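Hypothesis: this fold can be encoded by more than one sequence.
Test: take the structure tokens below, design a sequence, compare later.
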């Protein structure tokens, strides 16, 4: 049977029309799969700029205006000494040997954090914590307190009324309390008096520090930065520090803003299982895998019942009634069944395998340690 050339061309056109939707569907499916697998994160979530950091501040002060819930001055002599020193600075001299019995004053520690690039006049939130035996800081006012850094220099001054999230009451020996009463907070309670110098705008280069040291992630960050801003812009020093050489056509602030917003797909993290021996919590990441192994698990139960036994003498006997105790000990051991756990390539398979054992969280700790020793658990086991 002969087929003309026109019929062959018509058939080819029909096949192309039918195949086009299939090709588009396959292409869109591959794109969706690639997007799902490549999970990119902003560079600001993976790394920080070296030198851009917060600094802790601390100070010692006094809280006044308490409703009889302050320090017991007999047991906290430093509170009395602080009051006497403060009053002398204000021109009030107390006679020697004066005993102060104060109830409305409490000695406190004031803490805060000085953010990067903070300038004089900026306000900071402070936390006020009792260091004596004050019952409550509710309703108190913090007197002017200098806040110092690790170098001993004063960087801020704090003062203001405390906000305490708890409440308590007592009457006739009964007492009730909701939340914590010995810690308060002052919103915008401190004013910055000194700025921390920063040389990030003076140097030609600066460093990025990855939050988690990883050579693979460092290499991926270098490739992404060089691809976006040009070659030799980024150079990895080690698994954590990446040296950045900003291009000349960018201002420093504009370049840092663009750098922080750069999307980078980090490398898979180390396989790790975190075990909390106190609470029995077990947490594992998605890279944990399991090799085939067999686990035998059984429960041992010990039950002790103690019943009193009264020994009563006869009616004409001269003995005495004696009370003794009789204990019964029952040991029950459930038969241990050997359970075969197949190898799992992802976290869900590992969870299903461990749930198949039927062990409690406390038993799971010993099982994980034994599996790690046997080489079946492909992860780092860390006990906290």
């Amino acid at each position: 049977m002969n087929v003309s050339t026109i019929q062959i061309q018509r058939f080819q056109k029909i096949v192309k029309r039918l195949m086009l939707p299939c090709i588009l569907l396959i292409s869109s499916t591959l794109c969706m799969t690639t997007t799902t697998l490549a999970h990119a994160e902003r560079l600001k979530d993976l790394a920080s700029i070296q030198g851009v950091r917060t600094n802790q501040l601390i100070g010692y002060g006094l809280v006044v205006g308490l409703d009889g819930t302050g320090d017991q001055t007999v047991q906290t002599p430093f509170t009395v000494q602080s009051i006497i020193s403060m009053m002398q600075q204000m021109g009030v001299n107390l006679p020697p040997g004066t005993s102060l019995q104060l109830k409305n004053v409490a000695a406190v520690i004031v803490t805060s954090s000085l953010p990067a690039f903070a300038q004089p006049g900026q306000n900071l939130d402070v936390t006020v914590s009792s260091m004596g035996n004050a019952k409550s800081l509710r309703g108190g006012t913090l007197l002017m307190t200098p806040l110092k850094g690790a170098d001993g220099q004063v960087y801020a001054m704090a003062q203001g009324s405390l906000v305490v999230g708890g409440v308590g009451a007592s009457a006739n020996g009964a007492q009730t309390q909701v939340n914590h009463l010995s810690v308060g907070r002052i919103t915008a309670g401190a004013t910055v008096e000194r700025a921390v110098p920063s040389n990030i705008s003076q140097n030609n280069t600066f460093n990025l520090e990855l939050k988690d040291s990883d050579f693979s992630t460092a290499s991926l960050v270098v490739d992404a930065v060089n691809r976006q801003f040009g070659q030799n812009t980024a150079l990895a020093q080690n698994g954590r520090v990446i040296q950045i050489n900003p291009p000349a056509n960018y201002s420093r602030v504009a370049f840092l803003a663009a750098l922080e917003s750069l999307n980078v797909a980090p490398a898979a993290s180390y396989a790790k299982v975190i075990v909390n021996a106190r609470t029995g919590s077990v947490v594992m990441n998605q890279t944990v895998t399991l090799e085939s192994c067999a686990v035998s698990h059984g429960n041992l139960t010990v039950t002790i019942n103690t019943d009193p036994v009264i020994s009563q003498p006869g009616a004409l006997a001269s003995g005495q009634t004696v009370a003794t105790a009789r204990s019964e000990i029952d040991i029950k051991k459930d038969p241990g069944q050997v359970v075969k756990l197949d190898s799992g390539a992802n976290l869900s398979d590992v969870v299903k395998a461990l749930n198949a054992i039927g062990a409690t969280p406390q038993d799971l700790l010993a099982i994980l340690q034994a599996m790690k020793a046997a080489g079946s658990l492909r992860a780092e086991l860390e006990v906290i």
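Residues 272-313+320-383 form one domain. Residues 18-38 have pLDDT under 50 and may be disordered.
Hypothesis status: open.
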